[in-house]
Amino acid sequence: MNLKQYRKKRQFDSTPEPRGSSVPRQKGDGSLVYVIQKHMSSHLHYDFRLEWQGVLLSWAVPKGPSLNPAVKRLAMQTEDHPLEYAKFEGVIPEGQYGAGTVMLWDRGTWQPENADVDVSLQRGEIKLTVHGKKLQGSWVLVHTRGFGNNPARSAWMLIKHRDQYASASDVTQEEPRSVVTQRLLAEIARDDGGDIERASLGDPGRKARRTNKARSRSGRIA
Ligand code: MN
User: Fold this and answer.
1) CA distances, 92 to each of 10, 12, 41, 48, 98 (Å)
2) Could you give the CA distance from residue 155 to residue 176 in angstroms, rounded to a whole number?
3) DSSP 87
């Protein structure tokens, strides 16, 4: 696990994303960071990230998490990200890798349910307890063999376990705002100089889109 791939893909003089420190930060209480970033780039997806061994293990979940244990959500493993990334919300400029708008959709801590996470990673089954604002309780990431044919893009499934936090409600639709700033994607794009129209495609409902379009117009006049 290292940040070589992450850094190779990005130009840090052009993107506001963190380069990441080379020495992993140790948190005093031993808790591990969990974060989900809603990312409207070429396609809308939710980046599910778990702190482990000084980096954020990362998966891109196109449809986002489901609280329904009967629903499996595809999660494509992506390059490890620096721990500092767990604080990033903003706009990745055009022409840069992942160009688009990033929202801190959920954040908190996680605990592995099996002691040895490296073994779980190798076996392709990570059972975890999530302590977030939107996601809580027990989840599993399962590696699926035979999906697609690109070995560099490893396919997993993100599934809710049955517990008191399981639900039939659609959390991505019902809780579309930033967990930190309460902004919608279009509002983040508006504030940080991004493509508001494009960002709004990731926000639910047509009303929000019109509102933000109107705001952006008045913003430009002012
Ligand atoms: Mn992403």
Assistant:
1) 10, 11, 9, 18, 7
2) 25
3) G
Determine contact, residues 155/60, Cβ cutoff 8 Å. no
Three-state secondary structure call for residue 131: strand
Number of domains the chain is built from: 1
Tell me what the mean pLDDT of segment 125-151 comes to.
Answer: 87
* Residue among 151, 197, 211, 161 nearest 40 (CA): 197
User: Residue 68 C-alpha to ligand 1 middle, in angstroms?
Assistant: 23
| C-beta of residue 28 within 8 angstroms of C-beta of residue 22 | no
Residues whose Cβ atom is located within 5 A of ion ligand 1: 39, 47
110: DSSP letter: E
How much distance in Å is there from the Cα of 41 to the middle of ligand 1? Answer: 7
pTM (2 decimals)?
Answer: 0.87
Q: Which residue has the tokens 């989900």?
A: 36
Domain of 153 in residue numbering reads as: 4-218
101 C-alpha to ligand 1 centroid (Å): 9
Q: How does pLDDT run across 74-110, given as a tens digit for each residue?
A: 999 999 999 999 999 999 999 999 999 999 999 999 9
Residues forming beta bridges with residue 34, ordered by sequence position: 50, 108
